[in-house]
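Sharing a chain and its predicted structure for anyone who wants a worked example. Both blocks are below, sequence first, tokens second.
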Amino acid sequence: MPESARLIVRRFRPGDAPALAAYRSDPDVARYQSWTPPVSADAAAELVSILAAHQRRYGYGGKMVGVPVSVGVGVVGVGVGVVGVGVGVVGVGVGFLE
């Protein structure tokens, strides 16, 4: 995973669920996304669990979190995915969790 002196990009962990719930509960963020706010802490924890299961099953996962070293918890969501089948284009999305 990418890492610098100030930022670590890693997979989501259970402790990131509260920040993820807050991010997904922001109406200004959600209006451009596929979810409807508010998103509960339980729903965010379930998503983190689903992402971990996908990683274990397939060996990769499309959503990660950026963790500023000075903060220690995830504050930046990073999503990576194939935009079109067979196109070879990858989309990258970034969302600030706090």
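Comments welcome. Residues 7-96 form one domain.
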